Amino acid sequence: MTYRYVYILQSQTDPDRFYTGHTDDLDERLNVHNQGKCKHTAKYIPWEIKTAIAFTDKQKALDFERYLKTSSGRAFAKKRL
Known about the structure:
Elements: E1 4-11, E2 18-23, H1 26-34, E3 47-55, H2 58-68, H3 71-80
Antiparallel strand pairs: 1-2, 1-3
């Protein structure tokens, strides 16, 4: 079974800084972020995984990631994740 992960990263240098994304290889994606290869996260390395949720349905994962990037999704993540 193949999984698609929606993840929330937290910066270790700026704990108030978070990043939300999706991937099918969580370990590799974290390495990419921590190597500074992603322009959106390079300034705040190193990162650690705060939350990761596995989906079997790619579209549901993409929809959930999109939701987490809204203001209500950010409030949900702050309170529940």
